[in-house]
Design brief:
191 residues; alpha/beta; Pyruvate-ferredoxin Oxidoreductase, domain 3; 7 strands
Length: 191
């Protein structure tokens, strides 16, 4: 199998570490060679963060170059636009509709761009946008928006739902399992 690439992008504190663990767990359980990079960026300060996941028969490096990502999972709209050059032609962009103002917007030096998702779709990008924050709140905790997006992306990756549920059970502390299963199911239905 040719190597496939997934980028997980967002803002520090949105749960990209758990998301990369879940995806890695699913892929390993399916017998793939998997390489996952560490979270890169200003994760402790609410800055832009990115994690790379590569899988296939044999993977030498987790690094993803521009135009190589089969899937980009974005926890925030502006991050989806920022990392778009890494998406390969025919790739999928799964994004939350959430907007988090970066520091230039907070200080008044810039304005948050309008209609990001519509502009991405107008460029011919396959965008699946979900209101992950609202769905996570419906599940019981806004912090589960990362797992909502895992539910959405699971519909693009082609593995059985049971594989994802098993990964959740192995990666999430027991007291949060039911909440995360509900968040995942809501995301899967939205996908």
């Amino acid at each position: 199998m040719e190597t496939k690439s997934i980028m997980i992008v967002g803002v520090g504190g949105q749960g990209s570490l758990l998301a990369s663990r879940l995806i890695g767990n699913v892929l390993l359980s399916q017998g793939f060679d998997v390489k996952v990079s560490e979270v890169h960026g200003m994760s402790q300060r609410g800055g832009s963060v990115v994690t790379y996941v590569k899988y296939g028969d044999r993977v030498n490096s987790p690094v993803i170059e521009k135009g190589e990502a089969d899937i980009i999972i974005s926890f925030e709209q502006l991050e989806a636009a920022r990392w778009l050059p890494f998406l390969k032609k025919g790739g999928h962009l799964v994004t939350s509709t959430q907007q988090i103002d970066p520091m230039p917007v907070i200080t008044g030096a810039a304005v948050y761009p309008e209609n990001i998702i519509e502009k991405l779709k107008a460029q011919g990008v396959d965008v699946v946008a979900a209101d992950a924050l609202t769905l996570a709140e419906e599940a019981g905790n806004p912090k589960a928006s990362n797992v909502v997006l895992m539910g959405v992306v699971s519909t693009k990756m082609g593995f059985d739902e049971e594989v994802w549920i098993k990964a959740l059970e192995e990666c999430v502390p027991p007291k949060f399992i039911e909440l995360n299963k509900k968040a995942f199911a809501l995301g899967r239905n939205a996908g």
